[in-house]
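sry for the spam today, last one i promise. struct tokens for design, 109 residues
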């Protein structure tokens, strides 16, 4: 999913990181003044599956472009489904924006 948000990149990074603080933040780095990269992971005991979320924030001329890629899968040989965890994890970022009344445009899903 790709979003365009008219808000400061540093404020968005802080907001996203604080929201996912209860999860396992695997990687959080500022690549340069205009780019952040985060990887968040969560393990679901009820179905022995794992979900991860990779987020790239890039400052554009007038907005911040956010690329969100979720992935997930189960432990079983037969059932390597994510049971909707990937989509739910990706939409968590939209929930953050809604809760904080931040306008965004979905550029692609």
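last one done:
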């Amino acid at each position: 999913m790709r979003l365009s948000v008219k808000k400061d990149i540093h404020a968005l990074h802080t907001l996203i990181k604080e929201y996912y603080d209860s999860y396992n933040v695997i990687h959080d780095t500022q690549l340069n003044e205009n780019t952040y990269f985060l990887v968040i992971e969560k393990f679901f005991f009820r179905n022995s599956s794992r979900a991860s979320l990779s987020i790239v924030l890039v400052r554009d001329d007038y907005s911040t472009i956010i690329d969100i890629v979720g992935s997930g899968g189960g432990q079983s040989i037969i059932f390597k489904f994510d049971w909707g965890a990937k989509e739910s994890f990706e939409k968590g970022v939209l929930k953050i924006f809604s809760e904080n009344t931040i306008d965004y445009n979905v550029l692609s899903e």
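The chain has a mean pLDDT of 84. ok im logging off now
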